[in-house]
Amino acid sequence: MERKEGVLKMEEVLGNSSFSDYFPLQSIFDWNCEGGENMPLGFMELLGVQDLNPPLFDMGQQQAPSAVVNQALNPCSTKNEGFNYQPATPNSSSISSASSEAVNDEPIQVDDDQEEDQQKTKKQLKPKKTNQKRQREPRFAFMTKSEVDHLEDGYRWRKYGQKAVKNSSFPRSYYRCTTTSCNVKKRVERSFTDPSMVITTYEGQHTHPSPIMPRSSLGVGAGSAPYHYQQHPQPFVNTLSPLNFGHNNGSINAGNFHHERRFCSPGSSLLKDHGLLQDVIPSHMLKEE
DNA sequence: CGCCTTTGACCGGCGC
DNA sequence: GCGCCGGTCAAAGGCG
């Protein structure tokens, strides 16, 4: 069958089964580092935070603290290939930032009106089939080692569904940004090959400059972030270290954030420091670098 | 009371 | 065409 290309192919791969089934962690992390030069901006753009605090990202820490996986890891792969995807070597994975391609080379031509139409269509359960397949936002995923499924990333999310995933004993949760007119979605699932790893997939781009925290002018509270986003938008502040959960959940600061973000430096300098990274990536993976 | 999670049902896409 | 599966909806209930 004619399948969607590029990003959509990957999303299908990711959507069909457990993430780590088809993209060994090693590949993910390799990509993360090697593709970092192209990825971070797009990644942050997708989060809608690229302009919020540029200096934050000029520190050589332009990516999420953990493995950032572009959904278009392997644009050459079809769905079927995805099932058999096996990088020849850890460093030779064909992973690339095709999601960036989707954004840059082929900008998502979904304006707000179209978006609204799509949503209205969905809401009204009138799936009028147009001649074109449902257009989806570029997606990207990353893995984190965490005991909790829903990682705090500075935005408020509302869970709208949960599904059991085939070939995985862990359910997949679906979240949507609670901000009106913001259509960003998030999928959270656990890698069944490594239950300690949480795979978070973002879809779409935040339309609001800063996380909305209606309940929390203090920066704390249910579902709110434990720090002041207005000052330090940190979309993935606490996704890396499990240590943050439990005893640091309410006091993550920018320093900590920077500390963690070193992991995904687009350059090579920051890769030297594994620190918390060692908590996330098996040692043998680090050696591969 | 408002917001959130839970959960079963529904729908569309895709493979066979 | 049928069945599987991912994704979404929406009602119900819980919580602060």
UniProtKB/TrEMBL annotation:
The keyword rRNA-binding does not apply. Residues 146-211 form the WRKY domain. Residues 121-133 have a biased composition (Basic residues). One of its GO terms (cellular component) is nucleus. The keyword Kinase does not apply. It holds the Pfam family WRKY. Keywords: DNA-binding, Nucleus, Transcription, Transcription regulation. Residues 80-140 are annotated as: Disordered. Residues 80-91 have a biased composition (Polar residues). It is found in: Nucleus. One of its GO terms (molecular function) is sequence-specific DNA binding. Belongs to the WRKY group II-c family. This is WRKY transcription factor.
